[in-house]
Write a structure and sequence with these properties.
There is one protein chain. This protein is α+β, with helices and mostly antiparallel strands. 22% of the residues lie in helices and 38% in strands. The strands form 3 sheets. Strands 1, 2, 3, 6, 7 and 8 form a 6-stranded mixed sheet that branches. A 6-stranded mixed sheet has the order 9-10-11-14-13-12. A two-stranded antiparallel sheet has the order 4-5. The radius of gyration is 26 Å and the shape is elongated.
């Protein structure tokens, strides 16, 4: 059982064994003995969105002496980026979390006091709100039945190797996961006795590589585009019509979502309500 800090240190040392016992907290040693070591800094939680929750930024500072040429530092940094991006790590109380590579925020700097070159690599960890449940079971309160129908269709379409979540991401999501959330709704008249309900949904596709995310997102766009209706209640013969589906394959899978879907359903007004609005007479106002 590790804290988040210790869990990340362990993951770093597995990728770069040369850093074993050489990863420090907050500050480097006053006198640098080792030619290659690191400092791990954990930032404050910053609110991002209701579905992603908070993001904590982790800064890994690599210190390299003159004996380590630039090419070696590049190789070790690339090994850490490739190995830690999208990595599922187990921390405190066996709670798992995902690391996301956020880039190199600044150019390499020379620390004249320690005589070391410094390279900073940033990763992020998304932490959901304490009240957010995520998962297939839905959030607090009655789940939206349209969202449930969409999740059921997606699960069937992608198969058991994919996990499908509703409303918000869990911190320990599986490697292959889709999140659907309700992002808008509208009701409008379609006739004297008929009204139309439309709901907009945003879909997030997260996997182990950008290519896999894009291929899966495109597959869902293609499948939903060819799907005239989604079953809402098969026994009652209630269905949802797919009004439109678009995909932005370059969108951030966690924060923005690649898919935009609109579903509609027409419903009949009661005879009494329909009779009330069957005729409208406009009386002009004369001055």
């Amino acid at each position: 059982m590790f804290s988040m800090r210790e869990a990340i240190k362990q993951a770093v040392m597995e990728l770069v064994p040369e850093l074993a016992g050489r990863i420090y907290d907050v500050h480097p040693p006053e006198i640098a003995v080792d030619d290659f070591f690191a400092v791990l800094l954990l930032g404050e939680d910053v609110w991002k969105s209701p579905w992603a929750g908070y993001r904590q930024v982790i800064r890994l500072k690599l210190y390299a002496g003159e004996a380590i040429v630039s090419r070696q530092l590049d190789s070790q940094a690339e090994r850490l980026i490739q190995g830690l991006h999208r990595k599922r790590v187990t921390g405190l109380e066996n709670r798992a979390f995902k690391l996301h590579y956020l880039g190199v925020p600044e150019a390499d700097q020379w620390d004249s006091g320690l005589g070391r070159m410094i390279r900073v690599i940033r990763f992020g960890v998304y932490v959901p709100e304490a009240s957010a449940s995520g998962g297939d079971s839905g959030s607090i309160g009655e789940p939206d039945e349209w969202l449930s129908a969409l999740i059921a269709w997606t699960s069937k379409q992608l198969g058991s190797s994919w996990s499908v979540y509703r409303t918000s991401w869990p911190a320990d999501r599986e490697d292959h996961a889709v999140l659907w959330r309700l992002s808008g709704c509208e009701t409008k008249m379609a006739g004297a006795s008929v009204y139309e309900i439309s709901k907009s949904f945003t879909g997030h596709v997260a996997s182990t590589s950008s290519e896999h995310e894009q291929l899966t997102a495109f597959s869902l766009v293609e499948s939903l585009g060819s799907q005239a209706q989604l079953p809402l209640d098969s026994e009652a013969r209630q269905y949802l019509t797919v009004a439109g589906i678009t995909g932005n394959l370059e969108a951030d899978a966690i924060l923005n979502g690649q898919l935009k879907l609109t579903l509609i359903q027409r419903q009949m007004r009661s005879a009494q309500e329909a009779a009330r609005i069957r005729r409208v007479h406009v009386q002009p106002i004369l001055n």
